Amino acid sequence: MIFVTLEHILTHISFSIISIVITIHFMNLLVYEIVGLRDSSEKGMIATFFSITGLLISRWISSGHFPLSNLYESLIFLSCSLFIIHIISKKLNHKNDLSIITTPSTIFTQGFATSGLSTEMHQSAILVPALQSQWLMMHVSMMLLSYAALLCGSLLSIALLIITFRNNINFFCKSNNFLIRSFFFGEIKYLNEKRRRVFKNPSFLSFQNYYKYQLTQRLDYWSYRMISLGFTFLTIGILCGAVWAKHIQIVYHLNILFPL
User: Which parts of the sequence belong to the Cytochrome c assembly protein domain (predicted)?
Assistant: First the structure.
């Protein structure tokens, strides 16, 4: 009973903190970045990670097995995996833009696990003997880690495609506007003078779209790394699942040939 009460407390604490954190992230992104709020959001992410970890540990102790027996526990573990990816990317990247991808993924996953599922699915059940295998736990945990990495990598790739597509649209529109205006002889002199002024200004050439270039480079780098990591975990999970299935098959045939 104590662990059940602790589980409910940690669930509501983690969901409340991460709701505040994502609000702060969107405020910093869309309105104005405040250093104090940014530091508070990072502390909130760490507090939420420890809350979810404590939730998984309490369910592990109360149920007696690793908490991956139903959809609720799997989603909580997936949310914890997204937190780990967020913390690692934050330590290695030292930028705040990747958290716009990882933080919403975490809150939506945990929000669906907390409020989107029925109360009966939150209850931990006793596993049948066929599921009480370390290979199965290894298989499920590796698969969920791969899902988290592939989800982040896919979202980063989509963000990269959106930014690149918008840049191409802007360039195409400007090129068409230049071609249309070039047919008017009165505009040719104006365009030539404007072009000379632009090329004489080195700061314009040095810093125009520099932030977008850095952002696209980071998105390309991290999307590639996340997808590669996801397929690595996916391969390990599939191999562990194959070993578990073979083990269960051998045990099943032995029980038929040599019944107790």
Answer: 68-246
